[in-house]
Amino acid sequence: MDLPWHLYIMALLYLLAGGNHFRKPGLYLKIIPSYLPWHKTINYTSGAAEIIIAIGLCIPAISAPTAWALIALLIIIFPANIYMYTDKKASLNMPRWLLLLRLPLQVVLIIWAYIYTNGLPF
C-alpha cells in the first residue's frame, strides 16, 4: 500500500517541529500555560510524540491509527495556542492577528490528519 505524497509532507513537518522541541526548548516552554506543572516534561514529551507520530505516519500498517494519535495530540496542545493569544509573555512577540489565526489553523491541521485515518475517501 502506497501512501500519498502529501502524507509525507505532513510527517516531515511534524518531524521538524518535534525535533525543534529539543533544539530550542525555551521557545516551547514559553507557550505552555502557566497553570500546568512540569513544563520541561511537557515540552520534551510533546516533542517526542511529534517525532514518533511523524515516523508512524510513514509506516503503512500503522498510518491510519497514527493519524488518530496526531488528532489527539493537536487537541491536547490546543490550550497552548489559546495561552499564546491571551498572555503577552507567551505570545513570542507575534502580532495578535497571527495568534488569532493560529486558532482555526489548528482545526485545519486536524482535518488534514483526519484525511489519513481512512475516515474520508481522499
TrEMBL record:
Keywords in alphabetical order: Membrane, Transmembrane, Transmembrane helix
Transmembrane region(s): 6-22, 42-62, 68-85, 97-116
Domain of life: Bacteria
Name the UniProt record assigns to this protein: DoxX family protein
Species in which this protein is naturally found: Flavobacterium pallidum
